[in-house]
Amino acid sequence: xxxxxxxxxxxxxxSELNLARTRVQAALQAQREGxxxxxxxxxxxxxxxxxxxxxxxxxxxxQARDSHLLAELQALDDALMRLKTPGYGxxxxxxxxxxxxxxQRQPQALRCVDCQTAAEATH
Length: 123
Ligand SMILES: [Zn+2]
Hints:
- By secondary structure, the protein is an all-alpha fold.
- Helix content is 72%, strand content 0%.
- The chain has a domain of 81 residues.
- The protein has four helices and no strands.
- Helix 1 packs antiparallel against helix 2.
- The relative contact order is 0.15.
- The structure holds zinc ion.
């Protein structure tokens, strides 16, 4: 079983993944710097209970964004690893070759469009 990707397409996807990874890492860092500024501002402010509640909500939101970015980073790392294996570019569910234009839009895609749609429908 070989992948349908040419070496040129392979190289293109690898650089796409590395670019996306850099973007997510930068976003994660910006997010964490912003979060620590919010925490610092909160510490400087008096103990107004109303303010405290708002800061709690801010922090929860920050954490949600943080874990979303971390999951994205993980998916990109996984894709970079899979790119080195012959299984890359094949659907994990039905083993169909994932079309290159789909991979180009979403190099971390694990499934063909049909299986992805089915997987999302069950969530
Ligand atoms: Zn499939």
